[in-house]
Amino acid sequence: MSTGTIIAIVVIVLIVLAILAFVMPRMRARAEERKLDKRRGRAAEGHRELAEHRSERARMAEAQAQRERAEAELHESRAQMHEQGLADDELEDAPEPGRFDRDGETERTREGERTQQ
């Protein structure tokens, strides 16, 4: 082989090595960026699912509260009717005062559970 051929081969090898040294870090950086984008997407999807679940729970709680308010308004209107003497025929079906006291109801339930054990 002649000296010129050897020099040409060495120059070509050096050029290929320089290209690889320049391209490889960029390829790695792009691969890392793709992995990071995937992880970001999964994290965002997880947060969105959680937000959707919580929003649905909040909607259900709001609907329940609205039903409770409607029932309270109904009972209040019935109480006004009883006070005015317009619903005397429903006196037998009227709830007793203190019957729906939740603290007392909870205590009675706990006491009942203790006696059963």
Index terms:
single chain; 117 residues; mainly alpha; 2 helices; 0% strand
How far apart, in Å, are the first and last alpha carbons? Answer: 101 Å
Mean pLDDT: 84
Task: Name the helicity range.
Answer: over 70%
Q: Radius of gyration over alpha carbons?
A: 39 Å
Note the beta-strand portion.
Answer: under 5%
Given as residue ranges, the uncertain stretches (5+ residues, pLDDT < 50) are none
Class derived from helix and strand content:
mainly alpha
Task: Give the number of helices.
Answer: 2
DSSP strand tally: 0
Instruction: Give the biggest sheet.
Output: none
Which series of helices and strands comes N to C?
HH
Describe the global form.
rod-shaped
Q: Could you characterize the architecture of this molecule?
A:
With 117 residues, the chain is mainly α. The chain has a domain at 10-84. Helices cover 83% and strands 0% of the residues. It is built from two helices and no strands. The protein has helices at 3-84, 102-116. The longest helix has 82 residues, at 3-84. The radius of gyration is 39 Å and the shape is rod-shaped.
Short description:
With 117 residues, the chain is mainly α.
Write the layout of secondary structure elements.
Blueprint: H1 3-84, H2 102-116
